[in-house]
Amino acid sequence: MRDSYLKSGLTMSELSDRVRFAKSKISELLRGTGLYPRWEILLSLSAELKMPQWPLQRLWQQAAFEAQKSKEWVERSSEKAALTMSHPVPPLDHRAFRELVEDCYALYAQVFLNDDQRDAAVSDTFDILWLSWNDALASPDLRRYAWNVLRTTVMSRTPHIDGRPDFATAAFDTVAVRSLVEADQAARTIQIEESLGLFKAMSRLPDHQLDVMALRNLCGMPAERVSALLGVPLATVGSDERHAIHFLESVMCPPPETEGNTP
Hints:
Helix content is 70%, strand content 2%.
């Protein structure tokens, strides 16, 4: 909403006169400070700023629950305004793009989040894209723009330790671990210990290498699909994977010390 305001060319006074809310209240909202806003003010602002109201309303409601607002508060804050809202559909090209990538986005999100958080993150991603669809289309690469939105949304929900994502718990729901259902307990224990170490080491990878490894090795996607999904050349995917594997091997299987270096 702040970006839409800055692009609108309106002054704060003009916007205040149009929506009949105090400038201080609008400024507070656009800066993301103060109390969580009621839907009424967001609806008024979105109309003046020509923003799609339906995805904005869903994002507002989701964030309200995350801010510990009760269901009663959410309903009371939006019941009057909801009567005046239509339920439009996203642009056709947005819907087509979603059909192409949604399943892959969900697989990626599943590496880092539990089922409920995964679904919310993917849904929020496409709502955010709907709100910024013109910017997405005007970007150098729509796929890369959309992936950055997804990654930011997923990582905002992923626990972090020392600035790196802690995804071991969610990543246990992978092909490697599910394949051990029939294995004996000893094999499962060894695999789990190795997986914990692997996930911890992977969290130290640069962002682009982590994404490639998650998609290639935890989601099982072919390199060509990863290239198309991220909007990067196939050679870049291969290079990122090689560098990531080299790093992981150096961490997980360090070379033995030479005899001359043995204390």
